[in-house]
């Protein structure tokens, strides 16, 4: 009996030893994020590259850059010929995702590329601060990332899910089909991978690469309780499929306690007196968009939509109101987006 027990223990030990070898947890190598100061440049001009990690640590000086598979000196590149070029960076054996840059001769029309983050959140939602933290990490590296906080879920003060800034976005959420909170969507239709602070590169990648063929510029005034807003959309090519315009009214500086069950923000629950910014207060168009006729989306055309409406009754401080406008394609994905502060008259971001 003693011999049988010894054999059994020996076999079990071998099994566990095999498992520990097969499932050894190796230290993961963190991704690096490659960005360019321009995705589009005139021939003869220079594009400068930067390499960081998700936390914003800069490794540019120690990285090796390659264009179309050929290593280059330093972190700048210029071309005398028109065309697209694939760029990668390598740091400590880790290679970035490829980045496409373009050199042109000035005959084309391109616009600065911005991207949209829609953060479905709630003051009651203890895990939602992780998306807010991820947005901060993105903003540390990308000026052209525009965030909107869509607060959910109940406007009833007695509800455990009460949020004083609740906005009914159920039509949009139903179209997206993603349940629960928190959740972030990039360019409206791309779900941000969880945990979002570990996937900052997914968001930043959408600020890079091929530039859109439409741009936006706005003229915004808020005075005497009235919003006067002109939204202009300029087209650098013919768009034959239906496009739609969405216009948001946002408010910054809203102070309200935020539950926090995460390790972010020092892991404190509750975050007393938390400041909520870019909070969606109203949508001046249908939330899924207002159609722009195809006769108005031809190359060289500028489509204008003007609004003159009262400041929404739910706005706490009209001086903290700003606006986001974006155009979505027939799939609902954002083509380009722009944010404007009141009192600002914007020019088109032509490249």
Essential attributes:
five-stranded antiparallel β-sheet; 4 helices; Immunoglobulin-like; mainly beta; 2 domains; six-stranded mixed β-sheet; 351 residues; single chain
How would you describe this structure to a colleague?
The strands form 6 sheets. Strands 2, 4, 5, 7, 8 and 9 form a 6-stranded mixed beta sheet that branches. Strands 16, 19, 20, 22 and 23 form a 5-stranded antiparallel beta sheet that branches. A 4-stranded mixed beta sheet has the order 11-10-12-13, with helices on one face. It has helices at 2-22, 129-141, 170-176, 200-205; strands at 33-36, 40-42, 46-52, 64-67, 70-71, 76-78, 83-91, 94-95, 99-104, 115-121, 145-151, 183-186, 190-191, 214-223, 226-235, 243-251, 254-255, 275-276, 279-283, 290-292, 302-310, 321-328, 334-341. The longest helix is centred in the first third of the chain and has 21 residues, at 2-22. The model is unreliable at 1-29 (pLDDT under 50). With 351 residues, it is mainly beta. It has 2 domains: 33-104, Sandwich (Immunoglobulin-like), CATH 2.60.40; 115-341, Immunoglobulins (Immunoglobulin-like). β10 (115-121), α2 (129-141) and β11 (145-151) form a beta-alpha-beta unit.
Topology:
Blueprint (H helix, E strand, L loop, with lengths): L1 H21 L10 E4 L3 E3 L3 E7 L11 E4 L2 E2 L4 E3 L4 E9 L2 E2 L3 E6 L10 E7 L7 H13 L3 E7 L18 H7 L6 E4 L3 E2 L8 H6 L8 E10 L2 E10 L7 E9 L2 E2 L19 E2 L2 E5 L6 E3 L9 E9 L10 E8 L5 E8 L10
Parallel strand pairs: 2-9, 10-11
Antiparallel strand pairs: 1-3, 3-6, 4-5, 4-7, 7-8, 7-9, 10-12, 12-13, 14-15, 15-21, 16-19, 16-20, 16-22, 17-18, 22-23
């Amino acid at each position: 009996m003693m011999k049988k027990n010894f054999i059994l223990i020996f076999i079990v030990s071998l099994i566990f030893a095999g498992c520990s070898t097969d499932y050894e947890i190796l230290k993961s190598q963190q991704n690096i994020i490659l960005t360019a100061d321009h995705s589009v440049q005139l021939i003869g001009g220079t594009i400068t590259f930067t390499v960081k990690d998700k936390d914003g640590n800069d490794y540019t000086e120690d990285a090796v850059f390659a264009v179309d598979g050929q290593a280059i000196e330093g972190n700048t590149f210029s071309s005398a010929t028109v065309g697209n070029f694939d760029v990668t960076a390598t740091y400590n054996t880790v290679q970035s995702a490829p980045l496409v840059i373009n050199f042109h001769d000035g005959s084309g029309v391109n616009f600065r590329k911005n991207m949209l983050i829609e953060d479905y959140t709630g003051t009651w939602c203890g895990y939602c601060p992780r998306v807010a933290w991820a947005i901060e990490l993105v903003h540390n590296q990308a000026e052209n990332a525009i965030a909107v906080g869509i607060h959910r879920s109940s406007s009833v003060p007695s509800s455990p899910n009460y949020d004083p800034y609740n906005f009914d976005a159920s039509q949009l959420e139903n179209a997206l089909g993603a349940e629960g909170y928190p959740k972030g969507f990039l360019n409206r239709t791309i779900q941000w991978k969880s945990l979002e602070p570990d996937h900052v590169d997914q968001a930043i990648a959408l600020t890079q690469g091929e530039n859109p063929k439409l741009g936006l510029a706005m003229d915004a005034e808020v005075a005497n309780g009235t919003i006067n807003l002109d939204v202009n959309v300029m087209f650098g090519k013919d768009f034959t499929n239906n496009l739609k315009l969405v216009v948001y009214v946002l408010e910054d500086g809203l102070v309200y306690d935020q539950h926090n069950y995460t390790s972010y923000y020092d892991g404190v629950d509750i975050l007393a007196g938390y400041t909520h910014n870019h909070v969606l207060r109203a949508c001046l168009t249908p939330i899924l968009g207002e159609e722009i006729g195809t006769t108005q989306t031809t190359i060289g055309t500028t489509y204008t939509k003007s609004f003159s409406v009262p400041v929404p009754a739910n706005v706490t401080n009209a001086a903290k109101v700003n606006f986001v406008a974006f155009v979505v394609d027939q799939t609902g994905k954002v083509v380009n987006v722009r944010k404007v502060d009141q009192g600002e008259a914007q020019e088109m971001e032509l490249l």
